[in-house]
Structures are given as C-alpha cells and as structure tokens.
Design a protein that fits this description.
Blueprint lengths: L15 H8 L6 H9 L8 H11 L13 H4 L7 H23 L7 H12 L6 E7 L5 E9 L9 H10 L4 E7 L9 H17 L3 E7 L4 E3 L8
Parallel strand pairs: 3-4
Antiparallel strand pairs: 1-2, 1-3, 4-5
Helix pairs in contact: 2-3, 5-6
GO molecular function: metal ion binding; metallopeptidase activity
Protein name: DNA repair protein RadC
Family: Belongs to the UPF0758 family.
Length: about 230
C-alpha cells in the first residue's frame, strides 16, 4: 500500500490547483502540473503519485520523453486511461503550437539563432529525421517552411530538384537548410556536409543562395556556416 497522502489530505496551500491559483503555474513542478491535467488518481495512489510514476518511467530523458508517447504508452501507468492520455497530449500540442506561434512573430531572419528559435519547438522532440527548407524573400522574411523528406538524410533522398522547386514556386530570394537529429546530438555527419555542399552548388546555378544549414538537436544546434564547414 502506498503511504503517500492523497491530495485532499495535503495542506490547502500544497494542493496543485490551489497552489497554481495562489502562486502561478510557474511555481508548480512537473508532477504537479501533470496532476492537474490527470485530475484524479486511483484508490491506492494519489494523482500526484500517478504523475510521478509516469515521469519516473521515462526518467532517462525527463519531461521531454512524454512528448512523443502514444495514448497506449500513457495507459501503461495505472490510473491513466485513454481520456487522461489524450488530455495530456492535447496540452502538450497546445504548448508546442504556442511556442511556434511565438517564434513566428520574429519574421526577419538575421542570424542562426533566429532560425533555431523558429523551428526548435517543432523539431527538437521528433523521433524521425526531417529535412526542411526555409524560404526567405529579399529582406529575409520567412515566406514558408517546407518539408522535403522524412527519414535518414542522404544525397539520394534530398534531391536538389525537390528543394529548389519550392524555392522557385515561392519566388524565394534565398533559402536555409534545416534538419533534425533525433538522437539529440546536432553534430554534423560527413553525409550532412556532402548534401549541403551539393545544394549550395545548385543554389549558385539557380541564383538562389543557400545561406546556412542548421542541424537541430535536443535544445542544441549546429550552424554549418558558423562552424566554417561551408562557404
């Protein structure tokens, strides 16, 4: 039998909902925020304990690990059914969209960090490798962000035709290449550099310069331009 007290037995000031109302959402830890979304626990476990068990099961990557869980994986924790699982997943997606929308308010790309802030919320937790192209106008406003391929990056998959077709369609003046490393480590591979140089050469011919190639990791990034790996 779990000896952790039920939420109703906690002092009022320590109950997640009351604590949020009194001190703000930022004052709650991860388990307390999850507990508010889950609402109820089980006969044996408080909702706080259920939330802590969920976080503990995926403690290797911390809170980030729950972003890509399916409702079925959530349901492996006793006390979390389908309704609670989809509630948590909906809250995560809202948070991610809010982060993306905030990034979109900065429409002018002036440095690699601007690019990273724009795409990091979308791609840092992806379990598949995405190669995307950011299309810019003459003033470096973002015209569009287009997914070119999903899967391991290679010259055979990322073909210049697919990249520059979108650039021509949007009348882009320049482009930025972006892809993520699901491992979380943004260190570029030889293939990354090879593909980048091939696309840069195509950009010279097309008169649509490739300004940079950004590799996204888990809250980390590498700019091949900054690293001096491309001209």
């Amino acid at each position: 039998m779990n000896n952790m007290p039920m939420v109703k037995d906690l002092p009022v000031a320590e109950r997640p909902r009351e604590k949020l109302l009194a001190k703000g959402a930022q004052s709650l830890n991860n388990a307390e925020l999850l507990a508010i979304l889950l609402r109820t626990g089980t006969k044996e476990d408080s909702v706080l304990h259920v939330a802590e068990k969920l976080l503990a099961q995926y403690k290797e990557r911390g809170l980030a690990s729950i972003v890509n869980l399916s409702p079925h994986e959530f349901s492996k924790i006793k006390g979390i059914g389908t309704v609670k699982a989809v509630t948590v997943l909906a809250a995560i997606e809202l948070g991610r969209r809010l982060a993306e929308q905030t990034a979109e308010l900065r429409t002018v790309i002036e440095k690699p960090r601007d690019i990273v802030d724009y795409v990091m919320p979308r791609f840092r937790y992806e379990t598949k490798e995405y190669f995307i192209v950011m299309l810019l106008n003459t003033k470096h406003h973002v015209l569009a962000v287009h997914t070119v391929s999903i899967g391991s990056l290679s010259a055979s998959i990322v073909h210049p035709r697919e990249v520059f077709r979108e650039a021509m369609y949007h009348a882009a003046a320049a482009i930025v290449l972006i892809h993520n490393h699901p491992s979380g480590d943004p260190s570029p591979s030889k293939e990354d550099i090879c593909v980048t140089r091939k696309l840069i050469q195509t950009g010279v011919i097309m008169d649509i310069p490739v300004l940079d190639h950004i590799i996204i990791g888990d809250n980390k990034y590498v700019s091949l331009k900054e690293k001096g790996m491309i001209e």
